[in-house]
């Protein structure tokens, strides 16, 4: 019951006209980011951080804006899956399987509408799950000592590559690189200058915002330049909406199953939205078996993955808000915003910054209603924007990134740094070193060192303290599994996801 | 099917790990002794992990990605140079001129017709400048167009 009271307070925060305006703006921009080529959710949120920061938005407003963008991007990803058979972002991959055939059968408008409804249902289920689970988990997390936190951070890195990750060693290397970058600057506990080389700008450390924007936005531009994918896509006709009420009702069980499965996949470390949509699609196929015409444009084949990936998106916020340990790229970027607002993420946030946490959760609910309203009548606008060629879009996005970084500090030094990160990010991405662990390393590195230090001080320098409590041992074990499992199970799962994509009659 | 990319990366990371770890050993012990964690402890752990990771990369490399050659590589270098020049000229030339040139050149090199590209650059520059300077009152550099 306590929770309901907090949620009401949250609504009071989120429903002020000022915050509502930003939620609406975020939902719109998020959908755009999700559907535009070359602008993934993590990338889009990253570019908005410096802007939210320089605008001097109050913390709850900034978080509401970015959370709405995050929710919107999950909606937007489906548009190009359905119309063009090209997933707008990775979790929208499974939506191609039945969405595109539906569009080819002349039911594009129906597919877009039902997927918007499914996204709404999935997100709603996920958010309700978040509301019930987060306070419990936060209370549990209060029992964590520094040793447990240290193990938890390791777990976060180990599972970040996901069960489907290719080479866990590359995740480890990426994480270490990120943490190494975070050690540049003056050491907080002893005052020693580390790796600054006497450069004044480095004394305070490397600002992770410019690193994130460089790694995402600039490297994305370089990828498009290399692939010479500047030309836009041809315009697509959507047609009339013929969806009947009966059809919507008939998909309700699918929506419920997809949303719940997605939420679970989102909360668990190492799973994430892509796996969420994959699992719910496969389950739907097994449950309905012969009764469905999956792969040929079955409406439930659109509903299941969309409910799944949106459920997972809300689920992924659970570890981010309660433990301060994000499980996906976009939630990592949201964490960056929290840290730069001087809010220490973790269980204490629920007591110290209850207005922000619950404001964000309420905004997620409101944002979903807004998104549903935006996405059904205004779908034509988004479809038209889908054909904006990247050769115009990406340079402008890059320029916005420059403006954002410049306006934080008014120094061109930061701009050069951002370019360096962009080029470095391009090279590392070419070598299949993932970006997200680098960013997480940058964000969590200082916390990790602090907790290690505290643990050692409490135990008088005895290193075995790190694995002396049962909880810590459990975390170490899961972390170990997170590194070992991908090499064992990963190839099988990847092959399945791959062959599911191939079975579709459309992917030639 | 070679795997030179990962091997070279592994070698670079190995060198980095040693340099990073060695620098950490040079710091003077902080005043008050090293109870618990010294400034060098955490970097030393990181360096060790990176040594292991880089050795693994060199022993078991993945197959190489397709690296850009010829024209693509040239376009990439041009783009990077454009970005650096953009950062360099933003303050002296002012935001509008620098942005028109940078966005224009980039989208032209990505395949847009030159006229369309530079018009896009100019329009986006003016819109963003107006939005920031007048709408949000965050000043972007005026540069040459001082009285604008």
Please provide a written account of the structure:
The complex is a heterodimer of chains A (508) and B (148). By secondary structure, chain A is an all-alpha fold. Chain A has one domain (2-142, 149-503). In chain A, 73% of the residues lie in helices and 1% in strands. Chain A contains 22 helices and two strands. Chain A has a two-stranded antiparallel sheet with strand order 1-2. In chain A, α4 packs parallel to α16 (354-375) and α6 (146-160) runs parallel beside α21. Chain B is an all-alpha fold and 148 residues long. Chain B folds into two domains: 4-59; 70-135, no CATH class. In chain B, 70% of the residues lie in helices and 0% in strands. Chain B has helices at residues 4-26, 41-59, 70-93, 95-109, 114-135. Chains A and B meet through α7, α8, α18, α19 and α20 of A and α1, α2, α3, α4 and α5 of B.
Structural class of chain B: mainly alpha
Instruction: Say how many strands of chain A there are.
Output: 2
> What is the overall pLDDT average of chain B?
85
How many beta-strand segments of chain B? Answer: 0
Query: Which pair of chains has the greatest number of interface residues, and how are they split between the two chains?
Result: A-B, 60 and 63 residues
The oligomeric status of these chains comes to heterodimer
Order of helices and strands of chain B: HHHHH
Counting structural domains of chain A, the number is 1
- Major sheet description of chain B: none
User: How many DSSP helices of chain A?
Assistant: 22
| Helix and strand run of chain A | HHHHHHHEEHHHHHHHHHHHHHHH
pLDDT < 50 stretches of chain A: 504-508
Class computed from helices, strands and strand pairing of chain A: mainly alpha
CA-based shape of chain A: globular
Please estimate the helix content of chain A: over 70%
Average pLDDT score of chain A: 84
Share in helix of chain B:
55-70%
Rg of chain A (C-alpha, Å)? 22 Å
């Amino acid at each position: 019951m306590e929770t309901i009271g907090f949620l009401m307070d949250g609504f009071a925060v989120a429903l002020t006209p000022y915050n509502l305006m930003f939620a609406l703006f975020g939902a719109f921009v998020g959908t755009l980011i999700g559907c535009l080529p070359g602008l993934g959710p993590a990338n889009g949120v990253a570019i908005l951080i410096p802007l939210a920061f320089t605008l001097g938005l109050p913390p709850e407003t900034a978080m509401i804006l970015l959370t709405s963008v995050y929710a919107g991007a999950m909606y937007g990803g489906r548009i190009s899956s359905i119309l063009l058979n090209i997933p707008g972002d990775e979790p929208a991959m499974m939506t191609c399987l039945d969405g595109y055939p539906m569009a080819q059968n002349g039911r594009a408008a129906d597919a877009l509408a039902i997927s918007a409804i499914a996204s709404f249902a999935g997100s709603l289920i996920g958010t309700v799950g978040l509301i019930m689970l987060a306070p419990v988990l936060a209370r549990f997390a209060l029992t964590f000592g520094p040793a447990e936190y240290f193990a938890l951070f390791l777990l976060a890195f180990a599972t970040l590559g996901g069960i489907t990750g290719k080479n866990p060693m590359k995740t480890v290397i990426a994480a270490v690189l990120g943490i190494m970058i975070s050690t540049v600057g003056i050491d907080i506990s002893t005052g020693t200058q580390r790796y600054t080389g006497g450069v004044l700008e480095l004394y305070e450390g490397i600002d992770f915002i410019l690193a994130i924007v460089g790694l995402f936005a600039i490297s994305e531009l370089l990828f498009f330049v290399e692939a010479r994918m500047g030309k836009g896509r041809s315009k697509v006709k959507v047609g009339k909406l013929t969806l009947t009420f009966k059809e919507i009702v008939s998909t309700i069980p699918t929506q419920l199953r997809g949303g719940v499965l997605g939420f679970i996949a989102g909360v668990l470390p190492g799973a994430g939205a892509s796996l969420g949509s994959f699992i719910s699609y496969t389950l739907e196929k097994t449950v309905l078996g012969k009764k469905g015409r999956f792969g040929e444009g079955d409406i439930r084949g659109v509903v299941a993955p969309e409910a799944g990936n949106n459920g997972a998106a809300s689920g992924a916020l659970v570890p981010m808000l309660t433990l301060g340990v994000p499980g996906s790229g976009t939630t990592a970027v949201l964490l960056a915003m929290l840290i730069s607002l001087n809010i220490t993420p973790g269980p204490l946030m629920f007591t110290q910054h209850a207005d922000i946490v619950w404001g964000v959760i309420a905004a997620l609910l409101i944002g979903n209603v807004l998104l549903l309203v935006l996405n059904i009548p205004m779908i034509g606008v988004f479809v038209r924007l889908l054909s904006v060629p990247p050769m115009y879009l990406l340079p402008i996005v890059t320029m916005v990134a420059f403006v954002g970084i410049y306006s934080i500090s008014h120094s061109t030094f930061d701009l050069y740094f951002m370019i360096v990160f962009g080029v470095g990010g391009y090279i590392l991405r070419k070598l299949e070193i993932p970006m997200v662990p680098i960013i997480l390393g940058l964000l969590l590195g200082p916390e990790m060192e602090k907790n290690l230090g505290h643990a050692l001080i409490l135990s008088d320098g005895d290193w075995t303290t790190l694995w002396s409590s049962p909880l810590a041992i459990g975390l170490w074990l899961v972390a170990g599994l997170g590194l070992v499992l991908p090499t064992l199970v990963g190839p099988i799962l990847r092959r399945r996801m791959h062959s599911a994509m191939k079975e579709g009659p459309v992917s030639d | 099917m070679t795997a030179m990319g990962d091997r070279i990366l592994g070698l670079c990371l190995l060198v980095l790990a040693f340099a990073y770890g060695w620098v950490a050993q040079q710091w003077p012990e902080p005043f008050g002794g090293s109870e618990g964690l010294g400034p060098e402890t955490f970097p030393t752990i990181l360096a060790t992990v990176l040594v292991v990771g880089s050795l693994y990369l060199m022993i078991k490399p993945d197959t190489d990605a397709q690296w850009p050659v010829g024209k693509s590589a040239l376009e990439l270098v041009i783009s990077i140079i454009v970005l650096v020049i953009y950062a360099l000229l933003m303050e002296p030339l002012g935001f509008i001129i620098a942005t028109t040139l940078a966005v224009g050149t980039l989208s032209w090199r990505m395949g847009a017709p030159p006229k369309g590209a530079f018009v896009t650059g100019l329009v986006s520059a003016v819109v963003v400048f107006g939005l920031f300077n007048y709408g949000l009152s965050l000043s972007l550099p005026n540069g040459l167009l001082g009285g604008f």
